[in-house]
Design a protein that fits this description.
mainly alpha; 2 domains
């Protein structure tokens, strides 16, 4: 025997892996999931079984996440947790260190409109590299003043400092860049 019921995501009893997927989703995300399921299955012609709905959520989770704007842990794309998780997953830092950098990053960069992890990581790497190089140069070369910040920023942009530069690489590049620009200034006089 078959019977028809109205689909309500809040009443649907997921099981196994699908239950793990939806557990902890907030009500807005759960509602978007319900709307997405209705769009996918249509509910017009052939009605899906409970098993079909459950298996879809369980086995198609990555595409569902993309469609409803969450990461695979249920964090809305662009949210603080999404940013922290993306940074933590990308680098071999401890979680506390990744979150510390993510907090500082989010204070300076608007992440709410970012929808792509690759874009987020590119922005983070640019911010991290610039911030780290700037701090290292100012800490190591104590004779520099606030007026030198523009020159440091110019150096960072020109030299394309990357995440894999260590402090020695940055110092060496800075000293070479300063020497090169000193020669240019001397030639201009």
């Amino acid at each position: 025997m078959q019977y028809k019921v109205d689909f309500d995501i809040n009443q649907f009893q997921f099981w196994s892996g699908a239950k793990d997927r939806v557990e902890g989703l907030d009500s807005d995300t759960l509602e978007r999931l319900g709307q997405h399921i209705e769009e996918v299955f249509g509910f017009d012609e052939e009605l899906p079984t409970d098993t079909a709905i459950n298996d879809y959520v369980w086995f198609e989770w990555d595409s569902i996440c993309e469609a409803i704007g969450i990461d695979d842990e249920g964090n809305p794309v662009g949210s603080e947790e999404w940013v922290k998780r993306a940074i933590y997953q990308k680098y071999d830092w401890c979680e506390e260190e990744a979150h510390q950098y993510a907090d500082a990053f989010m204070e300076e960069v608007d992440c709410e409109n970012m929808e792509d992890k690759d874009e987020l990581i590119d922005e983070f790497e640019e911010w991290f590299t610039s911030t780290r190089a700037h701090k290292m140069i100012r800490d190591h070369y104590t004779e520099l003043t606030d007026e030198d910040d523009e020159q440091i920023d110019e150096f960072i942009a020109e030299e394309c400092i990357t995440m894999d530069y260590d402090d020695d690489d940055i110092r060496e590049a800075w000293e070479s860049w300063v020497e090169e620009h000193k020669d240019e200034e001397d030639d201009g006089d």
